[in-house]
Every structure is written in C-alpha cells, then in structure tokens.
Amino acid sequence: MKPHETPLFHHNNVAVKMEALQPGGSHKARAARRMIREALVAGHLSKGGGRRIIEKSGGNLGVGLAFEAQRHGIAVDLVIGLSFSPLKRRLCQHFGANLIGENLLRAGFTPKQAITHLMKQDPDRWFFTDQFINPANLNAHLEETGPELVRQVAAIRQPGQGIILVKGAGTGASFEGISRCLRDAFGAVRCELVVPSGCDIAANVFVDHPLEGFAVGVRPPFLDLGYINAVHQIAPDVAMEGQAAMARHIGFFPGMTSGANYAAALSAAARHPNALIVTLAYDSGESYIRAAADPAPPTPQPAHV
C-alpha cells in the first residue's frame, strides 16, 4: 500500500473506503496536505515562516491542517463555529491548532465574517486556505482518493456489476472527485447523496443537525448536483444505527456522518442487491469519546523549526 493510501473494507455488497485511517484520523487529511503543499509551491506559505494558516473548520480539516502544518513549521489558527462539538474543538488543540475569534463569534459574526475581520486588521499575518473555493481541495480527490478507489473497486467488482456511490457532502470536493474518477473508469455510476433529515441542498434549505460536515449551510461549491440520482434524508437516530451496524459488520466504529453514509449505503444495497455500493468512513467515533475524557490540552505555541 502506498503512503497515505487507505484500505477498502466490505460487507456483502457494501464497500467502505477507510479514510478514517489517514494521518490525523480523517479524509480531510488529503485536502490539508494538498492545500499546504500548493501554498508552499506558490509562495503563500514558507517552511518555518511567520505567516500562519487561518481556516474555519468544525474539526476534521482543522486537525488535518494542524498535523500537516507542524511538519513544515507553520502555525494554524482555527475559527470554529460555536455550535460545533466541543470535543472536536479540543481535539484540534491536541493536534496543535490555536482556536481564535471566539469573541467575534459571540458578538454575532459568522466564522467567515470573523476571518474577514481578522485578516483586514492584519492581512500579512495569515494565509486563508478557504476549503470552499480552494481548487487544491478538489484536486486531492481527483488525483489521490478517486484513483485509489478505482483500483480497489476494480479488484472486487464482479464483471458487469453496477456501482452506486453513496455519501454526503460538505464542500462537495470528495464526492465530486471520487464520482468523476469512478465514472471515467466504469462508465455509468449511480450517485446518491446523503443529507441530514430536513435539509434540501438543491433548494438551499438547511436546518440545525448533528451531522457535522454535511449540509453546512451553503450549497456544496464543488458538487455538480446534475448527476445526483437519489437523495437519502438521514435522521440522527438512523445515523447512530449506521454507526453500530458498521461496528458489527466490519469491526470499526465510525463518526456520526460516516454512520449516516453507512445507513444510506445499506438502504441502497437492499434496493440494488446486485450492485456494488461504495461509501466512505470519514473518521472514527472513538475520537469523540476519547476527547471527552481527555484533560484540557495546553495552549499551542507558535510553530518553529
């Protein structure tokens, strides 16, 4: 297996790409690596330099950025919405990120507004990775995740077997990158989108929900909704049932969004028993449990080499 390549586990006709096994514990590690690498090449960041990364993240991308950036001597400041899990916030700190802007958030700023405000005050202090517009986010999946998955699917797919991709979307980069690669390799691929119950991404309808990273309040900028064949609306209790089912079926307890993916994949498998259903496990549910028991981490210091 190549460095950072993750395995494909499967149960009956459901295959799960185990992105939770990336360094930093989630699929966002790929985007973090790619965004930092491209920023270094472009001169927006430098190894051991004083310019810091700033990003708005509910957890996984923040962890990925913190892990990757410290390898280059670069500090990371995160603005995390107040509604996001305090457990993931603490996990970001354990990986070395600084949490900033809370006073602005409590004053009514959105995370994006807080970043804009901070960067206006000191524009040379930060490089905003901005996962919602940064093409490196999509490129990571077009050039890494997608081709890996194509090779792995080809190894287990039966001749003539149809393929159905079932997963949620935040920025839409992983869905778009993976689906393009699968369609290029295998032709017609059915794509089914997982959303929290009550959300309608096409209609820009969003509600409060606990599936962090899905339906984040904006239409996924990288996702072409034109090829979505079906939408699964997944309630929190169904997502938790999916977590338990994945634990029983493949021996891995995932995070809640991955549980939603798996629940939707099982539903698709029941409706299409002859197809190969492909989904992702983004992160581990155990990370949330561990964070709850951990002592508060020390305040990270500015990165240095």
TrEMBL record:
Q: Does the keyword Calcium apply?
A: no
Q: Highest taxon of the source?
A: Bacteria
Q: Does the keyword Glycoprotein apply?
A: no
- Domain Tryptophan synthase beta chain-like PALP, chain residue ranges per copy: 6-280
Q: Which UniProt keywords apply?
A: Pyridoxal phosphate
The protein's required cofactor(s) are namely: pyridoxal 5'-phosphate
Q: State the name under which the record lists this protein.
A: Pyridoxal-phosphate dependent enzyme
Q: What organism does the record attribute this protein to?
A: Paracoccus mangrovi
